[in-house]
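Recap quiz, item 2
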Amino acid sequence: MPGASMISESWLWAGWAAAAAPFAAFGLILFLLRKRPGAAAAVSLAAVAISMVCALYLLICCVDTEVPLRSAVTWMISGDTVISAGIHLDGLSLLMLAVVCGICLLVQVYSLGYMAGDPGFARYFAFMSLFAGAMIFLVLAPTVVQLYIFWELVGLSSYLLIGFWFEKFSASRAGKKAFVMTRLGDVAFLAGLLLLLVRGGVMDIAALNSGAAGLSSGMITVSAVLIFGGVIGKSAQFPLMTWLPDAMEGPTPVSALLHSATMVAAGVFLVARLFPFFSQSDAAMVFLLAVGTVSMLMSATMAMVSRDIKQVWAYSTISQLGFMLMALAAGGYFAGVFHLVTHAGFKALLFLCAGMLIHALHSNDMFAVGQGGARGLKIPMLCMAVGAAALAGIWPFSGFASKEAVLATLANLENPAWLIAGLAGVFLTAYYTFRLVFILVFPAGQGQTRAKDPARGVGYAYNAMAWPVLLLAFATLVAGFLAAPVRHWLAVGGPAHEAVHGPAWLAPLSLGLVFAAIALAWAEFGRKNASRSGFVERVPVVAQLFARRWYLDDIWGWAVSRLLDRGAAEACRQSDNRVIDGFVHSLAGAAVASGRMLARGHRVMIQARLMIMFAVVFGLTCIMLIWG
Amino acid sequence: MIVPYTHVILLAALLFWAGMICTVLRRNLIMLLLGLEIMLNAAAVAFVGAGLHLQQIEGQAVALFILAVAAAEVSVGLALIVCIYRQTGTLDPECIESDACELE
Amino acid sequence: MSVYSIFFYLIAAVMILSTALAVTRKNMVHAVLFLVISFLASALLFFLLGAPLLGILEVVIYAGAIMVLFLFVVMMIRIRAPEGSGFLLWHYMGAGGLSAVYVAACLLLIRHAGPGTGAAMAAAVAAPADFGQYLFERHWLGIEIVSLLLLVALIGVLHLGLSRAGRRSGKGGAH
């Protein structure tokens, strides 16, 4: 069919355009437009808009296709192993492509306002383009190798963006921390990849998913667990979770992007991408389930005592990512991916709202922001309430639908402990979300400080920030009803999955828990004469434990200083000093000494010696020829 | 059909002899180095001729190494000569014998 | 007597003649120029003996680079005093003795020559591609060692040049 092939040709072109545009923008800004911030922003926005249009076009067209489309060139041939690079279009990648492009576009529009006047405006948009481009290529990758390359590129660009205000010590430190901690996981990821390459020789995602590699089950488990190491690092799961809360040192739009559609989403995306491969190993899936559960509960407790708005959202991101991993590990492909999509929307919304408040009131502390007159800023407060409701999982917001899907998946497991853990997570999530909302809306000394300056923040910057936020709030409202189309999209070229229905009592139970948690939060933070301290804070030991992030940072710090600094580094230094340097020094000394000795013998007329040397050589030749 | 192998070797031997005489009988360090070059070149000629005689490419490989060694040798040698000249003001090999031209 | 052998004897004559002239010149510039002719002739000889790549390298490295280096140094060091001619008598006698030993060795070598050395050699050409492949298949270690040698020579020359420059500036610009 020539017609069909032409159509698919145009799809591939659209896919390539979507992937290449942000990279082109990155190069253009970096090399030509560094001194022209306005043009840089325009180029970057145009590139993301092109990607967005292509993504939407592809998403709408692709519904009817049966086979995933692919355009790849051979990149490397080594023996029997052929590694290709290109783009791979199927339901999952196109859905993620649309989410990534959409969030990137909105965040970049928002950044026009948020970053206005920053000296690094052009640099910021260059990095944003790089971030978007890397994530798009990651999402469209047909092989694990390409995925890994852009996975690292995503890590690099997030490092650049977290440490964007590098003159601030804490920012550069947070960037380094994010880079190093995710790299720790990536080492495991790379080891898993190499294991796959050596044992299976297959790097193609479709081939891996169809089980063509012919690996033994033990090998699948080992490589899957190693690859999960990368997921744990990237998606900030236990025990590599502490980089994400620190990553809020970057500009808030960066946090919004990082937490919703790009950086941390890459980890969950990888699990979804290789879902059929991973599900061949039960042990690996149980491991993933345990990691997700532990991270979800731990970070939820951390969020309960934090005073920093962005930090609360950061903890909630870890918690929700854990939730997604639980869903995927429990076999709920659709539930996990759908929660990833809805979470991308409402988490971006929450961060952008927080950014507006912080931008207007110049504080990260939720109590200070509340007293500073957060109520007066209607748009961010309303939208944040919408996002919070979605995060807590209240009908009809998007979070409700996806959360119910996840819980239904968990309910179908044999062991009820996972479901109980999930429900506990739902309760805690609702509690800390509305704790924050109530603190913002009902500040302690309400009345005297309320709405000091109603006109504050209104202007170009405010408008540029308000539109994306409103759009995201709208998306959050409707996304919950898109479960059916998302299910349909995911069926294109994805693993087979059917709708999972939990027991009938599940939805009322979880909603009841949510409202109980909101009531608790109201009683502690919302009432007229509430104590304004959570039930956790009455037990100082526990509060301290939660606030110090379960001492994870301290454990890491101890491990690094003891094992790495004192142990390995010291040993290396000693061996360098004693063995290597000593050897080189003695070698050099020996050379100098022998040179001195020989020089003494050479300080005579050389030509006489030359003559003797020649005579001896030819004399020896003669002797050898005569008697030899 | 070219010439016999003996003739090539004879040519190389004559060149070598010229180089040897140059190194031994000229009172000039640069000429001494030049003689070394002539000898190295003679060796290369002999190797290429032997390669052709034995129908082996090996001889050419060795000749190539001779070329590289000659390049290295001449650069270091000339640098040393310039160094000596700056210190002693002469290129006479005899000067190295006397105390006045002694190297540091 | 084929065209090849006529070429060979012509080239051999040019080489011997120009080398002899180079060795005996008082003026070093002339000596170097005669030697250039000798090396160009030996490049031709390499072509004749079936080593085109070596011939080109001979032109580039010997006649080009090395001789130009000599010329530079000769021009740079303008010798004031003429070359001290003459050694003691024993020196010339020594040279004569050395030549005698050398000739003896050569004659012995010719007497011990293997079979077929007197017959004319068959012409053969090693194509540069084959030569390169052979070199990198069989002599990769040698190539590495030679490249290391060149690096060492480079560093040595730099060291000599730098220490000289330092000493000169220390003396206050004697140049």
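The two ends of chain C are 59 Å apart (CA to CA).
Chain C is about 75% helix and 0% strand.
End of item.
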